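Input/output pair, single chain:
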Amino acid sequence: MRLWCRRLLRGTAVYLFILPALVPMIALVGIPLLQTIFFSFTNLKEKNFDLWTLGIEPLEGSNPRCPGLVSVKVHPRTPAARLGVPDGSCIVEFDGEKARNARHLERLIEKAKRQFINKQKSNFDVVYVSSAEGATTRSISLSFARAPFDWKVDPNRDSSTWGLVGLANYKRFLLPSTGADDAKQFYKVLGITILWTVVNVTFHYVFGFVLALLLNRGVPGTRFYRVLLMLPWAVPVYVSAFAWRWLYNSQYGFFNVILQKLGCSPIPWLSDSQWTFVAVTITNVWLGIPFMMISFLAGMQAIPKDLYEAAEIDGCTRWQKVRYVTLPMLRPVSLTVILLGAIWTFNMFNVIWLVQGGGTAVEILATYAFRLFRDYHDYAAAATCGTLIFVLLLAFSLFYLKLLHREEELY
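Output:
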């Protein structure tokens, strides 16, 4: 029995040790992710995010049970419904003023809402006739409350209510339709994002590998060069982005000043979309090289020297050693850094946004989702883009990890 208890304690000790850190980590990552996915199935916008209601909606036309009065629809789970106002009741007076028709009652409710939001008044007297109770006249005091979330799925829901819309947001971005260019814009931005990722990761890999190869050969001043090449990684991203933005200035930037002294015309680095793509790519490549270089350098130093000695005995040149010894032995490292680099570059919001100063010349999915949130106040659309980014990266990561697992079995 004691032996069994000791084994149980040994088996659970590791999990008990990491549990205090694991639970907050799952909460900090999982809750925002689940919230974003949930919002992508709603019509959440600025218009209905802070929606106040009394729960009564004026209806056009007259009610034969109470002629000359304005009939209203009472929404469930609202202040009017909680105070027992039956659906189909007729409003006689609203805040001391007789309701002449449906539009007049709407204006009275809007006026009361402004007074409530501006904290001028909190309660409003309503006199109504309940046709369900034998045309009994009653008086109540109503106060505005946030409109309840509607759990009924309605793909055609407008901004007057907040609720579920099903897959309407995903259809809006994934299925092209006439009269709406959301899908066209999404696929355009997706194409730019993929191009941005492929170009940057390629340059990161090539320059990082070459620099690691030079440092691994033990050239004089290796420590100095290693520290110097680590500077882009040590400097905060926003500082680097602002510095590069100044270098790209059309009038006083370093690059255009040099070009003008050489007799060349200045380049519109941050005003032309093609040149802006080149500018932000240069900045991101400069920032990303140190990670690749350090990763490759660590992998090269772990390669046994016997392999290079055997290759030299066989008469291999330096290029052949790199091709047939270094590259194959660095394959697991290469696959790992490419995966991490692709994920980071795909979501590289800071460089794109800060170097452009919030411009739209170059747009990737991360900046596009943020623009939907900040400029258009379409929170559901931004959540949908965020969810699509998560799904794309998850699918890519699973495929890549499966490929990496096969490589590990080979090596």
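The beta strands are 52-53, 56-58, 70-74, 90-94, 97-98, 124-130, 136-142, 145-146. DSSP finds 16 helices and eight strands in the chain.
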